[in-house]
Structures are given as C-alpha cells and as structure tokens.
Amino acid sequence: MAKSTIYAGLEIGTHKICVVVGEAKRDGAIKILGVGQAPSRGVRKGEIVDFEKVQTCVNDALVRAEDRSDVMIRNVFLGVTGAHIESLNNRGRHRLPDDQTEIAEDDVEEAKEIARSVSIPQSNVFLHSVTRQYIVDGQEAVRQPIGREGRVLEADYHIIHGVRGRVQNAIRCVREIPLEVEDVVFNPVAAAQVVLTREAKMQGALMIDFGAGTCDYVLYEDGMITASGCVPLGGDHITNDVAMALQIPNGRAERLKVEEGSVLYEDVAEGEMLSIEDDTGLVLGEIERAFLFEVMNLRTKEILTQVRVRVEDHLGRLGAGIYLTGGVSMMKGVDAVAREVFGIKVTRAGSAPVSGITATFENPQYSAPIGLIRYAQILDSEKPFLSPLKRLGRRMQELLSSITL
Amino acid sequence: MVEYDRSHSPEGASTAAPRICIVGVGGAGSNVVDRITLDRIVDATLVCAHTDVRVLGHSMAPVKIQLGAELMKGIGAGGDPDLGREAALFSREQIRQAIENHDIIFISAGLGGGTGSGAAPVIAEIAKNTNALVLVVATMPFSFEGRRRLGQAEEALELLQKRADALVLFENNRMGELILPKDGIQKAFNQADQLIAQSLRAISTITTTPGLVKLGLDDLTSALANANGRCLFGFGEARGQNRGSEALKKALKSPLIDSGRLLHQTKNLLVHVAGGESLTLVEVEGVMKQLGRHVPDQTHILFGLGVDAKLGDAVAVTLISSLGLNQLNAHAAAAPPSEMLQPRAELPVSVAPAPAPLIPAPAPAPAPKREPAPKKAPAHSQYAPPPQLESAPDLLFKAEEFISVPAVGEAFPLSSLHAEAAAPALPKELPVVPQSFMIEEPPALEIPAAPVITPAPVIAPAPETARIPVRTPIAKELADAARSPKESTLAAVVARSVTLQTEAAPAPQDDLISFDEPEEAATTISAATAVLTRTKPTAESQQTFSLGEEDRGRFKDTEPSIVQGEDLDVPTWMRLKKKLRR
User: Fold this and answer.
1) Does domain B1-164 have CATH number 3.40.50.1440?
2) Most CB atoms within 10 A, among A13, A59, A273, B356?
3) CA distance A295 to chain B (A)
4) ipTM > 0.95, yes or no
C-alpha cells in the first residue's frame, strides 16, 4: 500500500477553472504537485450554463495541471456552489433499549439515521451531512459516544443540500470530459479546511469565500460547523455595477476594478480623476476616482450585508472573527468594509501553508481548490480501515447490487 | 393537552357526524358557496341567500333563498344594509326552514354591501335560535371601496360578533395585495374564494372530527381572539416523501400568512396536523419544529392532531391565527409589496389628500407639495376646474356611484401635482411621497401628456427661469453634502452618475419635456440637474412597466436573485437611486 495518496481537486469557478493536484502524506501533510488554471467561460453565479464552453476550459486547466504535476488525472473531487445550496442543523434522538446501558455502534448509527432523516425538498439531494457533536443524556459536545453509559443519545448534524438536477449537471459536465467524480464538495466547506485553523474553528469563525460569481460562507462555533450557504452575488456584480455606472464594456470594467479599484472612497481627494479607455485604448473620458470607489463600495457592502443577514444569529460568538478569502478578498479596502458591516475582527487569508509549490498558491484565489485536496485527505482518514479482503467483498457487493437494480 | 369535555359543547351533542350547513349571503358569500359546491370539499347543506335574483339564478348552490321577494322584487339591496336587513326579516321563515336541523351553521358574507352587511346578522340570529353552533366567515371590503362601506361593514361586524360563536374575518386588502399583478382579476377573486372555502372546510373538520389531540371551538376562538383582529389562515396538503414539511410549506405560502412573516407577531396560533393511518410522530415533530422557526417563543400554540382515514397517505396542515388590523397594516407598510393589485394601487391616491387618511399606511402627502397644485390649476382649467378638485375626495365617500367618476377626475390634480413635483420636489423630499403616488403615475402621465406639454411654450419663460435658479444651489449642496456624511452617499451617486451621463451622451432625451431647452447653455451642474428633471419622468414611467431586464446588464439571462422584492442583480447604485426618488 502506498504511503501517500494523490488527489486532484477541480473547482469550476465563475472567473477561473482550477485543477490542483496534491499529495497527501500519511502524517497529514499536503504537498501541492501542480496547479492548472484556465479562465472560465460559460459559468454564471457559480453554476454551469454552457456545457461545451466549460468542458473546453476544464480540459485546458486539466492539461496544464497534468503537465506540471506529471500526474495523470482520472478522478477529481469536484467543488460546487450555487444559490440553490442550503444548509440546516438537525438533531436525531435515539433512546437506548431498556436492557442496555452502554452505547454501542448500532445506537450511534440509529441516532445518525434519525438525524439525517430530515425533510428536505424532494428535488434536493444531500451534499454533506457532517456530525457536529453527540449528546449523551443532555451532556453536550461528546465526540466519541461509543462505549459510554447513557440512556439517550442524540446526534447533532449539519446538513448541506442542493437541488439534485443542478448538482448532477455539474457532475455530468465533468464526466463527459471524461473525468470520474470521486466526491462533490460544497466549495466553502473545502476552503475552510485550509483557511481556518483548528483554533479559529474552536473560537468561532466565519469564513467568507468572496468569489466572482458567488459569495460562499461557512461558520464554525466551538469547533463545529454551524452554518453554511451561498449568496449568489460576487465580484462580477461589482464589475457589472461599474460597467453600467461608467457605461464601459465589462472587460474594461473588470480591469479597472482589479487595477485601480478600491472600496474606500472617503479618503480619496476630491477631484482626483481617472481616465477611462475603451477596448481599443481610446480615451473615453474621465471620471472621479471617488465615484468609482463609491459604486464598488455600495455593492460590496450590500453583498456582505446579505451574508450578515444569513448568519445574524451566530455573530456574537465568533472569537476568531471573520476570514475573508476568494478572489475579491484581494480588493483594496474590502476588509475595512467587512469590518464595518460585521463589526468584528476581519482577517484576509489564503490557504494555510502547505508544502510544494505553495508560494504561488497562498493566494486567496486558490483556497477552495487546495481545500479540496485537504478535504479529500480528511475524508479518507475518517474512513474505517478495511482489510483488502473486506474491500474486495464490499466492491463485489456494490457490483451485485448495481446489477440487480 | 387538557381533556376536552364533550358533553358541554354543542358540537358534541350528536354522536354521528355533525350536520353542517353553509349559508352564503350576498354576492361575496354566494361566490364562496359556489366555490364549495364546485369543489365538493365539505359535506354540508349549501344555501345561497341573496336579494338579487340574477345572482341567485347563476348560483350553483342546491338551496336558494330569495330574500324579501315582495319587498325587493328581485333587485339587489343597492349597498344599503337597512334594505338588506328588511329583506332578510321578510324571508325569515324561509331561512329558518332551510337552516333548521343542523349542528353547525357557517355563514359566509362579504361585509360592506347591502345584502351581506344587512342580512347576515339576521341570518345569524335565526341560526342561533335553531340551537346550532354559528360560525361566521366574513370579508372586510377593500379600502378603495371607501369609508362608508367600511363603516357599514364595521357596524355589521359588531352585530355579527354578538350572535356568532366564532368569527373568522378576512381582510380583502391583504388578499388583493399578495396576488401577482399580472394575474387576472378573475384569478384573484377565485383565489380569495378558494381560501375562504378552504378555511371553512378546515374549521369544520378541525372542530368536528375526533382527534388524537383534540381541538375544540374554545381553541378556535382563542386563536381568533384579538381586538379588531383579522384572520390569518393557511392550509397545505401534501403526499409522498417529506409530506409533512411540504404540507407546512404550502400552508405557510398562503397569502394571508405571507410565508410565515406575519406569524412573528401573533399571540395565539392554532395548528392542526391531520393525516392518514400512516402518519408518524416523527413527521409531526418535524412539522412542529419547522413551524417553530416562524413563531416567536412566547406564542401560545394550540396544537391539534387528527387521524383521518379519508386523507389516505396525505398529510394536511392547517394554521389559524389572528392579528390586529393595526399590526397587519404596519406590516404591510413596512414591506410594501411592489406587486400590488392595480385597482388597489390606483385609488388610495385619491384617498390620501382626504382630511383624515383612510388607510393608516401611507404617510400623508407633505403639505408644501400640494400647495402648488391650485396655483398651477389655471393652466389646466378646462380639464380640471378647481371646485371639482376640492370636492373630489368628498364625493368619493358620499356615494358609491361616484367611485369611478372621481377616480378619473383625480388624474388631473395628480398630473398637475406631478408636473410640479418634478420641479420643486428634490430627492431629499421625495421619500416622503406615499409610494402609491409612484404607482399611480402611468395613467397620470398618459392623460395629461397633451395638456402639460402643449401649454409649456406659453408658460415656460416665466416659471421656468424662476425655477432653475432655485434648483441649482440645492443641487450643488447635494453634491457637496455627498462628500461628508453617510446618508447622502446615495445622493452623491445620483448626482455623479448624472454628471457622467451628460458627458457620455450629451442632450439625450429632451424630446420628452421640451420646456427645459432654454437651460441648454447653463453650467455643468445645472445641466446635470436639468437631465435629472428631464429623465425623471421617463425613468419613473419605465419603472412600472419594465421588468428590469435592461437594468441587469450581463446578468440578464440568469436566474434573478430576489431578496425582499429587490432584484440584487440590478446595480446597487441604480436601486438606491430609485429608492431615493421615492
């Protein structure tokens, strides 16, 4: 058995498509072997609208990643997002049979089952169901209930679900490349694995992945994932606002935003002008810098306010504050605006240090794809160890069941 | 749950299924009865009582009573409750015969008119005398029907309250508001009827069918107990996977509950969950938990649970509560649905200038703005003579026949008001304007289009030059103010974006209102403000008609992200600008 496993993470973002190949060592360290990136076409608000364009772009990114890492990629962990993804917390309560006092594995399974049998709309599918904690006879924050004495076992779950069709479309799009999708991961959940430290999670932290198409967030409290979701607004909206306010093409607005943009307009000297060129380089006119910044500020504030509305109930308990990541988090002044909106400490963060060619990829843009590798690793380490024989047996079982169906 | 003592309740008197009778009184009532007849949702004797033979002729109810045949000669009560009452008294024997020998009698009426307000109390009295349980389901008139009808409705309500065992009251305004504007009026009314029919059915099943956790009439009355309360009702039925939550979702979708938002203020809430034999406790728990999110902790939840084999594998959730009229209106004002029903949107405008505003929701129009109207009036004198102007609101309340007439006439004062508003009303003042004013605009704009523009060249020199100097300093101040404090950031965006527009596209839309032309050679700022004035009417008229398609830029093909009625894909500054104009 190999000492390390190689994973590939694929994130189909609104602005870029990114494939990260990483090696997860047994000791938990991650080494990034290669990253392939391509500008994205045919994605709107984090969701695929044009299959063919996306497939071409994914292919580009894939080839680059394979080139750089010298790994042939067959399976990927796919990061998804979109306005349709929602989350909720549910608790399953299981009372032990009267003649039993010790919690056994079956009881845990039973409690999990009850917790998972939450009602989500029929068209939706579970993306994640994460155990937050177990509660034994009212005692909270039990991590490992098996073997404990108790009468009532409760399993506390955080469930993330999305519309089946939309999730499946993303999978289908990738399968046609052809790539096998090992697992589908909600982007911010992956990103949080590398952006938030264990300590931050314990203290309580809100991670906001401010991307081009969407603004995804995950909130941790006491080390447990408490809320997550997606606001379908992002950097593209800022660009669009600028484009419409200045009446310039979107591409020009995007460049203006990246090169000159800021969301702090109060300190700008009055009358400071900025010349605008059209696509051919002809000067269209001048605008006040403060005006540009204000348009951007209004939108940024609104997007962050939308996030705030969704996590309002938990804001008081965030000791570690807010972690901003994603492409837009590089925008000038965005942390100040976030601070203004949320009123707590704001940190801009990329992925935590990992080995390999990371120097380039501590960039917040790559939090989610690197997080995918980390997520894959965590997922694997949580899997119960199976002997090769059992593994074979299980595979046969799967095969047989698929035939009978 | 406390055991419900059946022997003392009237509905428990019969051991077999209780006999139910539903009486529809007047036009609205008979519509509801028709709906019930068509849907066959309640096993009951259906009676339709009306003074008007034509309505009776169309009615589908099996039993029809013509009220006061000798007195009224088959003609309606004409909005006079006294006539309605007389008519009902004339036919009381007939009524008694029809509704006798029933355990529960529902009376459904639309209050405010003649037959509904007049006859319903009489019928309730007769019903009470037959020793039946009397439940009244009534609707209050739309606010545009005027104060007099509202008064009549309130009088009738008082009478009904004394006679009925329980009164379920619906607010027509509320129902109208929440139906999409593009839905036909037919559909709107159908939905209202359906809702009332559903509530009838739910109440009858809740109070009559034996349940595991029984709800009685006492629970119903306590859920509805609220001073001047209006009923909030939601009903949902679903089958299949997640049927519990689906049913609850449907129930919450009811316009009267406004997807659970209105439940935040209720004191009592009656919840009834019914299902077939397969109903599980987990499902019920799930429903209640989900509901808990919409209801504050201190709300008294009256919970009922019934197993009804008829439901098969479906689960039905019923929510009944009530909310004071003031709270309801406050809520409606807080979140004004932009998709208001046109007739409702149109008429409150004519009501607004009345000495005491009928609807508490919109703030009274600021006085300074109304003053210019008479001054300007001579310009339009042939269209709207001043005396008629002043009396118009009064006429509206004096006689219903005039409703349509002043409504048309009202367009004129408004148009002059609007023409003025474009000039002296600056963004800072505009937020005070009742928002119904905005909605009224399209008709107002169309009608006066000719009068406003044609006389313009004649009047233009004098008032226009006088007006602009006033405007420019304020515009300057506006731009200056935008620098420092936060509230005026919006103003700054407007001002700046306008400047930008002038530069990008010089003199864009002067074809619309021509009298601004003399200002063409002014300074940049005044030019900017001129554009502001010019574009304003255009943009506003667009606001009501456009679907926002143009505004969304690159997101026009994507699914809109709508939060609280705002499309967040539209640039923030654009939306703020629109708000500012209001």
Assistant:
1) yes
2) A13
3) 6
4) no
